[in-house]
Design brief:
The complex is a heterotrimer of chains A (about 325), B (about 325) and C (about 550). Chain A is of the alpha/beta class and about 325 residues long. Chain A contains 12 helices and 12 strands. Chain A has helices spanning about 45-55, 80-85, 100, 110-120, 125-140, 145, 155-170, 185-205, 215-220, 240-245, 250-255, 295-300; strands spanning about 5-15, 20-30, 35-40, 65-70, 75, 90-95, 175-180, 205-210, 225-230, 230-240, 305-310, 315. In chain A, α4 packs across α5, α5 packs across α7 and α7 (about 155-170) packs parallel to α8 (about 185-205). The structure holds adenosine-5'-triphosphate, iron/sulfur cluster and magnesium ion.
Chain lengths: ~325, ~325, ~550
């Protein structure tokens, strides 16, 4: 399978008042057509920055990007905003975290929906409107004809997220980037939205990236999962392998913090103690060392590389967890 | 629900109007100096009594207020005394018929011109926020907004009117009389009034737009591959226009009575001049009626902007309902 | 597809913009030529009633419509005008005015003794037709003491169809001048007096022009020729020469200049305070300037009924602080003279006239001294609020005065052109501590006397705090004696009720296409001055193409 989207050693730094902020530190990832990749990491680990920078949405004097980002073999990083815009919507589309803020509050659903069809695909207004209704039906919205006359304010969170998903797929993108698509929703709605995304991916054959800080969310929907910590990929494996043969102490800690649906009442959630490193400070140590219960002196003086254990399961640790025998 | 909001606003407006006009009646009475002494310094006792009755000074302020109010509601704005104080004056209404349309038109043109220029400029500045272009233009605008309009007016009159001989330097021509002359006579006054407003409005818009540009829905819109211009005009402008609209409403009210200097420079003689003349010649009834009109104008423009704002931003509609 | 349609929009917008530019760049039409004269004046129309006090600009418009019994000729002498002859008794108590026959008002009424009596009555507020309609006014001082209709009947009477005789209770040597009073006491038709509007919107006089529209727009007065005008030009031909005259009020002197240069107007009037514009226009070959005699004294008049100028120290401090030479330069740029005494040098009130140089001068040390004295007397700092009008000249002049006061240690600020709030906060009349006042003095003390004693029209009852002063002026007026004038003037200056600043003559600037200014002969011979105290004679003015 040839890669649809490839990140190679992507680095993103911000100039801040405190100094250079390292948000993404050399990430290499690839997504094949039709594949679903989950990106998991704590808040601040650089998930959003990584995808926005890769897409070229993040730019400006204070943003430094390096490395390589290729979409269907075309290098995106050096492109101007105008050039890269041609990919947006039609090739790569995004679903945002908060459907509350990601829809324009002062425009009707219909008009902010159809504009992309008119502007990008050159449809005429009537055709675009028909297509909007069709798409809304596709995301299982009731009474789509009425919906288009409404403002985002008049919809519930889950409905809005579905509208946003419908908007994202409007121009048949080859890749859908969903940045925490369910964080702002309540649990039952979360499941529906994820179900919908999976469904659409299959129907439309899109590649998909689901970004989340909750391993549980991607567990059932992604083919592979990359765990991000302090701007680095620390573990990358197929979903099965990641759960079955967790190698990273960090991932282990993350897994323990998942609220289990079958968990007994009163069982306390084990959050990871301590905080991720300051993205401005430079350190040679393993970034997880201060919080790692397996950390040794070596972990505090050297930086581990991302290694393949031979099965395509990658990890970044001097003392990986034992893989249970298969 | 919408109607209830509108009704509530209307009720509020009417209440404000009552309060404003009633305070004027009281204030007029509190003014030091006997109006009779000022209007008819040499009048005989009978003459004084007659004027006193006409100005309602022989009845209490509440009675007086309501009689004035009913006159006003019937379209009687009082008399412009020509020192005789016994009906020898001109009805204020007929003077308003001359002055008010001029001021309203000047206000209208000024607002249209200001907005038409300020909006693209504000958008451009917000788009280029914090770049050198933005900083330079913003500073220039700041400087421009502090140039008094009459200075611009006089400079224009000299350069465009006299040196280039393009436009008339004085006078007003009613539209009905000669449409092209009407516009020609108002170009320089409107430009003089607009320049400061353009500077103010575009700076207000710039700030609000910069805030809106940070919103998620803007990123969302660009991730759909829409052009910057489209995003700025269709996504960012409307949610960023509240300050601009509020300020515009105030300016509309202010322009009705407050364009005196420009009215004077270009000899347009609108409402502002009428009001200053009324004050200078102590036209008590006229002052009260004119000030009431300005208050009404403020309220009406604010209502219009409230309605417009609700049209522009559905959040307002929902929020109040 | 999108690109294409947007391109079209641009083209349309471009074409529209070009069309707009094209329409704007049509050359502005010049003022209508020939029979229609456009005159720009700097003063609003606040009524032509006898008791209104129009300034020079409005008076010249008013005098185009209605005329006076006597008039001042180019030599500064009062001569009969609507009256054919004016005779007086030796004791100056009996005055007989014989009217010219065959003069008709615009409404058809013939000018007779009865008309004059109706005007007198109206001006005294004693018009039997309209009780208490027009309050007595000061212009025709000389009726002093007449307060009832009965008395009036005894004081003025018709001795025939065209003869009016006044029997005055006290001698009035200047009574003939009281009927000129710089163009103010005009004779209106009886009907005009009855309509009560006395020239507010309608008004029939005997003048060369009649009112076409006036009053409702206070900034424009349109007059049209009176086909039955009584005067003839030097060749015996009919007057007036023009068909219409439009007086447009343009408050800004620079804009009057611009409009004149552009040809949007034919004639404009200016005061010396428009010095920069005047100097500019002197260089323009297309324009002709006429300057009147520098008879008009611009003064500050103190409100002596309220702080701070109820204090003599405050008044003197003010008077000594003003550097008149500098002020004349700032304001008039060489088009006015500094004034120390009241009136021009030949004026009876002018103290240097009697050889005694007692007028107030600029003396910073003394000014400071009086500022300090005021502080000791009242415990307060001397603070002055100067009124400005909408004109930039006024602001400039007042700023200069303020700076002078500040140098003397007094606080001074400019009152912004009246705003509604300012008025509400301060009241109408009482906002003025001092006010600029122009006193058209000419030769005659009568008019100046009026301003010295009866300025309450503008200033709401300002009176002298020195009780002897009014009496002094009364005597002076009755005796017309130089010594008495000097005596009163000395007190006036000594206590600084007035602070003269500069003397100016009015200016008329006309385009060189205008002919006939100052050319109409007076019926008794001679002419009116081109720029007189009541404006200029419009009857023979015409614009050539
Ligand atoms: N425009 C910016 N300028 C400076 N620093 C930024 C900027 N955007 C993000 N950062 C920083 O980069 C780091 C990564 O942020 P990012 O938003 O990618 O985190 P995240 O993993 O998406 O977290 P979350 O789960 O909260 O969305 C954070 O430390 C953040 O403060
Ligand atoms: S390298 Fe050491 S500190 Fe880092 S995760 Fe592995 S064990 Fe823990
Ligand atoms: Mg994020």
């Amino acid at each position: 399978m040839s890669a649809l989207f490839e990140l190679e050693n992507l680095r993103v730094q911000f100039d801040t008042k405190r100094g250079k902020l390292h948000a993404v530190r050399g990430v290499t990832l690839h997504i094949a057509a039709g594949e679903c990749l989950g990106i998991v990491g704590e808040s601040g680990s650089g998930k959003t920055v990584m995808w926005r920078a890769a897409m070229g949405l993040l730019r400006g004097k204070k943003v430094h990007r390096s490395g390589s980002v290729r979409f269907s073999g075309r290098e995106l990083l050096p492109m101007s905003a105008k050039e890269v815009r041609h990919f947006w919507g039609t090739e790569i589309a995004m679903v945002f975290q908060d459907p509350m803020t990601a829809l324009n509050p002062v425009r009707r659903i219909g008009s902010q929906f159809s504009e992309a069809l008119v502007k990008r695909l050159g449809m005429d207004k009537a055709a675009a409107n028909e297509r909007v209704v069709e798409l809304l039906r596709l995301v299982r919205m009731p009474e789509p004809e009425k919906l288009v006359r409404k403002y985002p304010l008049q919809l519930s969170g889950g409905m809005r997220q579905r509208v946003m998903i419908a908007m994202a797929i409007a121009c048949n993108p080859k890749l859908l980037l969903a940045d925490e698509p369910t964080t702002a929703l309540d649990v039952t709605v979360q499941a529906q939205v994820l179900e919908l995304l999976s469904d659409l991916r299959e129907k439309l054959g899109m590649g998909m990236v689901i970004v989340t800080h909750d391993l549980g969310i991607v567990a059932g929907h992604s083919d592979r999962i990359a765990v991000l910590y302090a701007g680095e990929v620390v573990e990358l494996a197929t979903t099965r392998s990641l759960f079955a043969r967790t190698r990273m102490p960090y991932t282990e800690a993350l897994l323990k913090s998942i609220p289990r649906l079958d968990g007994k009442r009163g069982e306390t959630l084990q959050a990871i103690e301590g905080a991720p490193p300051d993205p401005v400070a430079q350190t040679v140590a393993c970034f997880f060392a201060p919080r790692c219960r397996y950390a040794t002196e070596k972990c505090r003086t050297e930086h581990p590389e991302l290694l393949d254990d031979g099965t395509g399961h990658w990890y970044r640790c001097f003392y990986p967890l034992k893989a249970p025998a298969q | 629900m919408k109607y209830r909001v509108a009704l509530k606003n209307l009720a509020k407006a009417v209440l404000v109007l009552f309060l404003v006009t009633f305070s004027i009646s009281i204030l007029v009475r509190w003014l030091p100096g006997d109006p009779i002494e000022i209007l008819m310094p040499f009048a005989t006792e009978e003459g004084r009594a007659a004027l006193r009755a006409e100005l309602g000074l022989d009845i209490n302020v509440v009675q007086y207020y309501f009689s004035w109010l009913f006159d006003l509601l019937r379209g009687d704005f009082g008399v412009w005394y020509a020192s005789t104080g016994d009906g020898g004056g001109v009805p204020v209404r007929s003077m308003l018929a001359v002055a008010l349309p001029r001021s309203l038109l000047i206000m209208l043109y000024t607002m249209v011109v200001s907005i038409v220029f300020a909006v693209p400029l504000g958008i451009f500045l917000a788009y280029r926020a914090e770049t050198r272009t933005d900083k330079t233009i913003s500073n220039v605008l700041f400087a421009v907004s502090s140039i008094p309009s009459f200075a611009i007016g006089l400079a224009l009159a000299f350069v465009v009117g006299v040196q280039l001989d393009l436009l008339p330097v004085i006078g007003y021509v009613p539209f009905a009389e000669n449409p092209s002359e009407h516009f020609r006579s108002l170009v320089m006054p409107v430009v003089s009034l607009s320049i400061g407003l353009i500077a103010t409005f575009s700076r207000l818009l710039r700030v609000d737009m910069i805030a809106t540009l940070r919103e998620d829905f803007v990123t969302m819109a660009s991730s759909k591959g829409l052009s910057n211009m489209w995003i700025l005009w269709r996504h960012v402008l409307r949610p960023s226009s509240s300050t601009l609209m509020t300020s515009a409403a105030l300016q509309m009210g202010a322009l009705i009575g407050g364009a005196v200097v420009i009215e004077s420079v270009f000899a347009l003689n609108g409402f502002g001049m009428l009001l200053t003349t009324a004050i200078a010649t102590r036209q008590y009834l006229a002052i009260q009626s004119l000030v009431a009109l300005i208050a009404i104008a403020y309220i009406v423009f604010n209502l219009i902007v409230d309605v417009l704002y609700a049209v522009v931003d559905p959040r307002v509609r929902g929020g109040r309902g | 597809m999108n690109k294409l349609s947007r391109g079209n929009h641009r083209k349309v917008a471009f074409v529209m913009a070009m069309a707009l530019v094209a329409s704007l760049s049509q050359v502005a039409p010049a003022a209508a030529k020939g029979d229609d004269i456009v005159i720009l004046i700097g003063e609003k129309d606040s009524g032509w009633c006898a008791q209104d006090s129009p300034g020079l600009d409005q008076i010249s418009a008013k005098n185009a419509v209605a005329e006076t019994l006597t008039i001042m000729n180019e030599k500064g002498k009062i001569v009969p005008y609507l009256a054919k002859t004016v005779e007086n008794s030796a004791d100056f108590k009996t005055w007989k005015f014989t009217l010219r026959e065959g003069i008709y008002f615009h409404d058809g009424e013939e000018l007779t003794a009865a008309t004059v009596l109706a005007n007198v009555a109206a001006n005294l507020g004693l018009n039997p037709l309209i009780p208490a309609s027009l309050p007595a006014i000061a212009w025709q001082d000389g009726f002093g003491g007449v307060t009832s209709l009965a008395q009036f009947a005894a004081k003025a009477q018709a001795l025939g169809k065209y003869v009016v005789q006044f029997n005055l209770p006290a001698p009035r040597p200047l009574f003939n001048e009281s009927w000129y009073a710089n163009g103010r006491p005009v004779i209106w038709s009886t009907k005009t007096l009855q309509t009560k509007a006395c020239g507010t919107t309608v008004g029939a006089g005997t003048g060369p022009f009649k009112i076409r529209s006036k009053g409702v727009d206070q900034f424009q007065t349109v007059l049209e020729a009176n086909p039955n005008y009584w005067r003839k030009d030097a060749a015996g031909k009919r007057l007036p020469k023009a068909a219409t005259v439009t007086y447009k009020v343009v408050l800004d002197a620079a804009q009057r200049t611009n409009a004149l240069v552009k040809g949007q107007a034919d004639i404009a009037t200016f005061g010396a305070s428009s010095g920069p514009q005047l100097n500019e226009m002197k260089k323009n070959a297309k324009l002709v300037l006429f300057e009147g005699r520098r008879d008009t004294t611009w003064s500050f008049h103190m409100n002596t009924t309220a702080a701070p100028f109820n204090s003599k120290s405050a008044r003197l401090a003010f008077s000594y602080a003003i550097d008149r030479e500098a002020l004349a330069k700032v304001v008039a740029k060489g088009n006015a003279d500094a004034a120390y005494c009241f009136g021009a040098t030949y004026h009876p009130y002018n103290l240097s006239n009697g050889g005694k140089k007692k007028c107030a001068t600029f003396d910073l040390a003394k000014a400071k001294q009086y500022v300090a004295a005021y502080k000791t007397e009242t415990g307060k700092d001397l603070t002055v609020l100067l009124p400005t009008t909408e004109s930039t000249e006024s602001a400039k002049a007042n700023q200069a005065v303020c700076n002078m006061l500040k140098k003397a240690g007094a606080a001074c600020s400019l009152m912004p052109p009246v705003t509604a709030t300012a008025v509400i906060l301060r009241g109408f009349a009482l906002q003025q501590q001092v006010s600029w006042f122009n006193v058209v003095a000419g030769y005659s003390p009568a008019f100046a006397d009026l301003f010295s004693r009866k300025t309450n029209l503008e200033l709401s009852g300002f009176r002298f705090t020195n009780p002897g002063l009014a009496a002094c002026f009364q005597t002076a007026l009755e005796t017309n004696a130089a010594a008495k004038y000097q005596e009163c003037a000395a007190v006036l200056h000594g206590e600084a009720y007035w602070v003269p600043t500069y003397n100016e003559g009015g200016f008329i600037v006309a385009r060189n296409t205008v002919t006939g200014l100052g050319e109409t002969p007076l019926p008794v011979g001679g002419k009116r001055p081109v720029v007189g105290l009541s404006g200029f004679d419009i009857a023979s003015v015409k614009v050539s193409d």
